[in-house]
Amino acid sequence: MAKEMIAMILAGGQGSRLYALTQKLAKPAVPFGGKYRIIDFPLSNCANSGIDTVGILTQYQPLVLNEYIGNGQPWDLDRLYGGVHVLPPYQQASGSDWYKGTANAIYQNLSFIDRYDPQYVIILSGDQICKQDYSDFLRFHKEKGAEFSVAVMEVPWEEASRFGLMVADENDKITEFQEKPKEPKSNLASMGIYIFNTDVLKKYLIEDEADPNSQNDFGNNIIPNLLKDGRNMYAYHFNGYWKDVGTIPSLWEANMEIMDPEHSGIDLFDENWKIYSRNSGLTGHKIGMNAVVENSMITDGCRIEGTVKHSILFAGVQVEAGAVVQDAVIMGNVIIKEGSVVEHCIVAENAIIGENAVVGAMPSNKGNSVATVGPGVYIGDHAKVGPDAMVNHNVKDGEVQW
Amino acid sequence: MVNSNCDALSIIFPNSYDNQVPELVSERLMASIPFASRYRMIDFLLSSMVNCGIDNIIMIVRKNYRSLMRHLGSGREWDLTRKNGGLNIVPPFAEKTVHVYNGRVEALASIIEFLKNQREKYVFISDANIAANFDFNAMLDAHIASGADVTIAYKEEEIPYGFMNLQSTMSSDLYYTLSVEDGRVKEIQINPKESGKQNFSMNIYLIDRELLIDQITKAYARGYIYFERDILAPQLNTLKVYGYNYEGYCVRISDIKNYFDENMKLLDNENLDSLFHAPIYTKIRDDNPTRYIGSAKVKNAMVADGCVIEGEVENCILFRGVKIGRGAKVKNCVLMQDTVVESNADVEYIITDKEVTITSGKELKGSDTFPVFVAPRKTV
């Protein structure tokens, strides 16, 4: 039986600007929001939208991501026919290639798409935080009789030149595409989420592959080619929460926004649109006798004896007595020892912050930087990590790292 | 065949001692009573079995088992969706007339053909009123080392008030103490009333599968009901019945007060770590992390995921999805899943079952010796 629509998630991104966090894992596997990883968002959106066949295109450091996806059961994507499949580059009789670009990654997996013979293919990005109903997007695509649709968001005009922009008429038909233009004619930014009619997708991917000068990229090549040929292209307006967490400050900010759903619009408490994840299996968290917890999100397995203010704690974090954690994102199993002060920063999984150490600092008038401690890093007793630091190796007792 | 697993299967009786906590089992059974902020009683022994490599588990249910079936599903969370073995729930069998078994003998007789077809050499039998991170392999090793026919796990402890005062005549509600000499059980006492520490049976038995089939077949033919009284006790001279002294942390639900106390004891990290030294699995709900907002003040509490806390919480166990409104005061309480305490309510020493609502401004207080219980889905 053919599927109506299958999803292909581009998850090969290195996320180089997240440096310390993505040394050993791909950006879609970066932990987010207390108990999730970024990839949970597109996967949960698929499950909640009724999409039961998903290909995940991986390339960079796929180990953590592969293990995390497993058989797809947490997202209800363990299916007899369909389900979730991780698709790394592979060898073929004609040779082998890394994925050269976003379009090439899909091109190399056309045979996967063929297996399910879908009418439509939705291309998703594995590194965005967004709750979106793809079935509504498909409804729009069908209503317009589109061959290609792209989800767009209105962005402030002054920031428009940072994005790929769609110029559309009053019927949402796309007339022009501008990639990061100096003089924007539109403020409709592409979210990098596309629905294609499968036959159109295949035709353009095959033609693109034959063009030696192409960068094999959707934004740079496929979309301009579609436009050139006067295809039926439409822009689907999305106005929910959307964030590309490509940098440390944006990742930190998106985490902070979870604690303020009333204003930020990212609501993880929606019973009708749950975000699924692989579970830690730890006990409920414990708040101790002398602990202070204010405006924070805390999950299973945490033990809090110190002070936690406006922070997100992932599973199994320990905050010892006298320690202060503020405006911080503390990933799984981090230990924050007695008397240390951890502020305005991201501390990655399994790091240990020694006694009376200082990590990060509350923003002053000089700036708003977010200190970062990489996974498994040991910050020694009385050591200091400055607000601009990105620490990827152990810091000895008493040392200072700027 | 590669033998990476324990050479034993397990039979669990999820309904045993239901009568001790009538409040909690109005819509469920002992095995599915919520415990320790995000678990059900069955999770503990079931996870322990799985952690010990037991992957062929039979549950002989008696009544009120819908909540248990919903909780266990296919057994996936416990890694029990297996082609061979796995989780097998056996409801009462409708033969001519629907018949609910009365004692273990009858219950075991109903699965005797199944038992004959299994491959494991040994059988563990247990109830579900115990929460312990139990090492079944250690008990098996002791069983083999002693050359016993039957091994009974016991714990040296006082018999809780809830057992002594139960006026039930249900066979599944009898309790036993053991007289043990050099490891061997010399006598089994039924419903003893002595105070002080006793060798209090945990009703976890280990027996050779062939022997079990033989004993049950004979006992059933004679119309026996009780496994302990009618099979073990009379044959202590001929069968080698050994005691296995369990020294680990053990929760045994005996009445509603004890249920309250056992939850509260987990606020002590030492107790919590003893109970959870190996992972305990449970059904996943995909709740978001718990959110503490604005005026929330929390002291000495165990809190599961999915809660939203705006009020004051002290000495509490909060299950998944509990909401505490602004200005509400919650002290010394056990609030089960999806309980809502609205703004400015003031509660102390209460146990709420699931989906209870305490409306705005209400005051409800039990006491240290008598926690007030609010039944599921009630609004105060």
Q: What oligomeric state do these chains adopt?
A: heterodimer
Count the strands of chain B?
28
Count of alpha and pi helical runs of chain B: 10
Which two chains form the greatest contact, residue counts included?
A-B, 34 and 35 residues
Sheet bearing the most strands of chain A, described? 11 strands, parallel
Shape of chain A, please? elongated
How much is the radius of gyration of chain A in Å? 22 Å
| Radius of gyration of chain B, in angstroms, nearest whole number | 21 Å
Helix content of chain B: 10-25%
Number of strands of chain A: 32
Helical content of chain A stands at 10-25%
Low-confidence stretches of chain A: none
**Globular, elongated, flat, extended or rod-shaped: what is the shape of chain B?**
elongated
Instruction: Decide which structural class fits the backbone of chain B.
Output: alpha/beta
The main β sheet of chain B shows up as:
8 strands, parallel
Q: Quick check: average pLDDT of chain A?
A: 92
Structural class computed from helices and strand pairing of chain A: alpha/beta
Q: Beta fraction of the residues of chain A? A: 25-35%
Straight-line N-to-C gap of chain A = 59 Å
Topology:
The complex is a heterodimer of chains A (402) and B (380).
Chain A (H helix, E strand, L loop, with lengths): L4 E6 L20 E2 L3 E2 L2 H10 L3 E5 L5 H7 L13 E5 L3 E2 L2 E2 L5 H6 L2 H7 L3 E6 L2 E3 L3 H10 L4 E7 L9 E5 L5 E6 L8 E10 H13 L7 H11 L4 E5 L4 E3 L3 H11 L2 H4 L20 E3 L4 E3 L1 E3 L4 E2 L2 E3 L2 E2 L4 E2 L4 E7 L4 E2 L4 E7 L4 E2 L4 E2 L11 E3 L4 E2 L4 E2 L4 E2 L8 E2 L1
Chain B lengths: L7 E6 L20 E2 L3 E2 H11 L4 E5 L5 H7 L13 E5 L3 E2 L1 E2 L5 H6 L2 H5 L5 E6 L2 E3 L3 H11 L3 E9 L2 H4 L11 E6 L2 E7 L6 E12 H13 L5 H6 L8 E5 L4 E3 L3 H10 L3 H7 L14 E3 L4 E7 L4 E2 L2 E7 L4 E2 L4 E3 L2 E2 L4 E2 L4 E3 L1 E3 L4 E2 L4 E3 L6 E3 L6
Parallel strand pairs in B: 1-4, 1-8, 4-5, 10-14, 16-18, 17-19, 18-20, 19-21, 19-22, 20-23, 21-24, 22-25, 23-26, 24-27, 25-28
Antiparallel strand pairs in B: 2-3, 6-7, 8-13, 9-15, 10-13, 11-12
